[in-house]
Amino acid sequence: MLSNLLVQLINGIALGSTYALIALGYTMVYGIILLINFAHGEIFMAGAFVGLMLVTVFKVHIIFAFLGAMLFCMIMGVIIEKIAYKPLRRSTRLAALISAIGVSIFLSNLANLVFGAKPTTFPPTEEILFKIQTYELIAGAQITNLQILTIVTSAVLMVCLQYFIKKSRIGKAMRATSQDYDTAALMGVNVNRIISYTFAIGSSLAAAGGVLVGIYFGVVKYNMGFMVGLKAFTAAVLGGIGSIPGAMFGGLLLGIGEMLAVALGLSSYRDAIAFGILILVLLIKPTGLFGTQIQKKV
Amino acid sequence: MFKTKNLFLLVTFILIAALVAGCGGGQTADKEEGGGAADADVVKIGFLGDLTGDTAVYGQNTLDGMKMAADELNAAGGVLGKQVEIVVADHRYDKAEAANIVQKFINQDKVSAIVGDPTTGVTKATAPISNGAEVVQMSAGATGLGVVEIGPYVFRNTLLDTVGGPATIDYMINELGFTKVALITAVNSDFSVGLSKIFKDAITEMGGEIVIEESLQEGDTDFSGQISNIKNKSPEVIVYSGYYTEGGLLMKEARKQGMADIIMIGGDGLQAPTFWELGGDAVEGSISYCGFSPEQPTEETAKFIADMQAKFNKEADLFNAQGYDALKIICAAMETAGSADPKVFVEALAKTKEYPGVSGVTTFLENQEPVKSPVYLLQVKDQQWTLLKKVPVEM
After folding, report:
1. Which residues in A lie closer than 8 A to residue B4 (C-beta atoms)?
2. Which of A143, A268, A273 to mutate to test the interface with B (most CBs of B within 10 A)?
3. Nearest CA in chain B to A81
4. CA A202, A185, A191: angle at the middle one, nearest 5?
5. What is the CATH number of the domain that holds A277?
6. Chosen from B187, B232, B255, B277 to mutate, greatest number of chain A CBs within 10 A
């Protein structure tokens, strides 16, 4: 029992770290323009497909496929923002939200048309990466090198992001814009450019998540963004939307929660439990675990 | 500002154009197939199935088999002197869409019969509509429980799970000697839930032991948790009652977690190339049962396999054969009754006895349930289903 719990904990951390990567995009965009970017899940899907195409069609090394997918989605995120959200920036928040849902449906249908509805497989890991090995931990628990890779890559990306936000000029400008959009603009911050940066970074993290999930589960599908997007959004809200550490923590909590449900023999209720955690946290702390009081902007 | 506005307009137009093109495409496709709605010189048979969704492999193959049967019949003068026309629609494995399509078949196309859907879930969702409208619906693949009970106009032409399931478990326990079983069910699939019940009863009856029962949701891709639980109980075999997509991913995950030699045993839901496309080496050795095998064919079956190869340039599979047989059984009943009116020929159809089809010999029992013989046990070898054993069935 104990070893199984430990194994499920590791499974949960691996799954949760992918949720966290995607949740960051939701939370960063929300922090700056108070928009829930529902197309974010589809960017994750696009990242997975671009990574897959680069590996199978263009035969590039998996590391370059990983970076290529991040670059592609970076551009894609910025274009989506310019086309679908920027013209609506001064209209009601609902208009931008509906536009986001529209983009999401458009992208998943486009992927359905281009790639078909059948799930597409990633090449076996031993061909593109390494042979899967399991390592014994304490009490008979095991971890695979693929899980280590997923967790470490996510962690590195998140540390880089944290450093970027805290130390760089753009990061500072982002934080300023997030605190007060208009004042930041008055202080000489080019807010349009900052918003583009936010979308670019968030989207590239989602793409990284997409490629990692593609390698980890070995399968890519046109509608994979929907459920994962929903879960990542849940993770972002759980941690307190707008808070970057909150998104990381929320993702991990959600992944671990789901896997513990499986460990307890409730596999068919794992989604119900994931969303149950959300409801519970919101009831006790409506701003999420790391959330600050939301100030209504006038 | 002007520029942005222009760009926005441009994109809006592109989106609208894409949408219009999409809808337009669908409509023309429908029209093409359903063109002569008022034409009395043809016998119309609707094809209900999935051509682009999760079970598209089944739908497309059923349709190809039906086309083959219709072409053969038409070349030989048709049914009751009329040409057979197949009306095609794609429900994308969406039950609501499937219900709409059945309504359209009945009210707009005025079909004599509907062949499809190959899955139990969609059939159960749509058959009440055709039964209510007194139109024959024959599923060429629904193997689960509670299908023909829907009403006197609902038929199916397939090897039943209640026959194939126990035969497979018998082989697993008595010939392979696997008694410690991990049973996995896809809880959001009618087919899987029904088959799991049959597997479970057969396993306990024949002296096997289910050491762990796991469940999953069709459409999920992460099964790491379920496999960890299963590994923890160290079973000798994994029995999975669902479809090929999750089947392949489950086995891949099992290998990833170091379950090196375990095999999967399942129903005919595993019968699609997607199973090894997703599972790769991990599904080698997996076993399932099926009502059709291209190996060791009878004379009719050998001809059918050769014809399919010539027409579609592919090896015939179960769904080709069942779709082919379903259409021919219906047309045979029309000939016997001398009418293409479903209210008339339904009686002749229900009395079909020992029909020698390409997917085995078919008899409909009093309660409309089909009995088909033999059961084929198949095993994956080098990414192909190969014949393991033929088990005859009492009629």
Report:
1. 86-87
2. A268
3. B8
4. 25
5. 1.10.3470
6. B232
The topology under which CATH files domain B162-290+378-391 is Rossmann fold (3.40.50)
Residue at A298 is within a domain: no
Residue A70: pLDDT band (50, 70, 90) is very high
Q: Based on C-alpha coordinates, what's the Rg of chain A?
A: 19
CA distance B25 to chain A (A): 13
Do the two domains B37-159+296-364 and B162-290+378-391 of this chain adopt the same fold? yes
Region A32-38 average pLDDT:
85
Sequence-ordered strand ranges (E) for chain B:
42-49, 83-90, 113-116, 136-139, 154-156, 180-186, 209-216, 237-240, 264-266, 287-290, 355-357, 360-364, 370-373, 375-380, 385-391
Distance in Å, alpha carbon of A267 to nearest chain B alpha carbon? 6
- In this structure, what are the phi and psi dihedrals at residue A141, rounded to the nearest 5 degrees? -75, 155
CB distance B216–A3 less than 8 Å? no
Q: What is the pLDDT of residues A205-248, one digit of tens each?
A: 999 999 999 888 888 888 888 888 888 988 988 888 878 888 88
Q: What is the ipTM of this complex?
A: 0.75
Q: Where are the domains of chain B?
A: 37-159+296-364, 162-290+378-391
Question: Is residue A153 a part of any domain in this protein?
Answer: yes
Nearest Cα residue in chain B from A223: B219
Q: Does B37-159+296-364 carry CATH code 3.30.230.10?
A: no
CB B115 within 8 A of CB B133: no
Cβ separation B215–A14 shorter than 8 A:
no
- φ, ψ at B75 (rounded to 5°): -65, -30
Q: Which of B4, B5, B245 sits opposite A119 (nearest CB)?
A: B245
> Which one-letter amino acid corresponds to residue B143?
T
Verdict on whether the full-model pTM lies above 0.80: no
Span B250-294, pLDDT tens digits: 998 898 888 888 999 998 888 878 888 888 888 888 999 888 877
Tell if the CB–CB gap between B224 and A218 is shorter than 8 Å.
Answer: no
- In-domain check, residue A53: yes
Residues of chain B contacting A, Cβ within 8 Å: 4-5, 7-8, 11, 15, 18, 22, 52-54, 56-57, 92, 187, 214-217, 219, 221-222, 224-226, 228-229, 232, 245, 249, 252, 255-258, 274, 277-278, 280-281
Number of domains in chain A: 1
- Report helix angle A191-217 to A2-33, nearest 10: 160
pLDDT in tens, B45-80: 999 998 887 778 889 999 999 999 999 999 998 899
Tokens linked to B227: 């496999």
